[in-house]
Model the fold of this input.
Amino acid sequence: MSEIITEYRNENTKDIDLLPTIEMVRRMNDEDKLVALSVEYESENIAKAIDIIAGQFLAGGHLIYFGAGTSGRLGVLDASECPPTFSVNPDMVQGIIAGGNDALKTAVEGAEDNFEAGYEDAKILEKDDVAVVISASGNPKYLLGVLSYADEIGCKTIGITCNLKGKIAEEVGTLICVEVGPEVIAGSSRLKAGTAQKMVLNMLSTGSMIKIGKTYENFMIDLQATNEKLKDRAIRIVSQLADVNHSRAFETLEKCRWEIKTAVVSLSKNIDFEQAEKELKLNRGVLRRVIGEKSRV
Done:
């Protein structure tokens, strides 16, 4: 069995069960402060992974996360947030957890040790997709099964782990290894390791969506305005990008089926809804190609 750093005992928290609550919180927070720095050390590999994912998106591929336990739940969470945030089809970014949907709420015994199940679950992959395997220890046989199938079909692979000596480190095409060190509670990888994985997943999905034009500046221009809060956000975005008052932005959004990019193009170029849609389609939906630079303070 390869060495599992996440199972080590943390020398800084040996007395955590004796501490006053405020000191316990401070000790945990001190450990959490190390996570962002550990992620920073992997910036180049994260950037490489983002470019791979964006490239496969443009080629018609999908991003599929695979993980067991906490890692699997984090992958499913990140995938589920992409459709409302970036208005993409649910199949564009997917999360698969070892043991199936039941494992989202309760532990499924032995799921991470099942190579064959990983191999079978990976059959959702196609050649142009990207398989991202997530594991703090880097050792689940389930993920080795996923990587075996991905390798067979020539699918690009990315690994997110906290253990450079884990088995997936040897198998993935691009490795992101965030070495956060021993956990506050030995072996509880939902803590620092989970936080690190969430940070990396945020970067992968957000960064790749930015690269394919799903934002304009730092505005969420492809969001689905499905409630009052999001409609208010859409109005503010259109108002700022098209330099119109809120009433005009609201009226245009209603005409444009609450599609932010279409409304911005319609107002910026003084054209109707249908023409604005055509302009966007001609430019693969990338707003910056249609209206160029409209930077504001």
Q: What stands out?
A: The beta strands are 63-67, 93-97, 130-135, 156-161, 174-177. The chain has a mean pLDDT of 93.
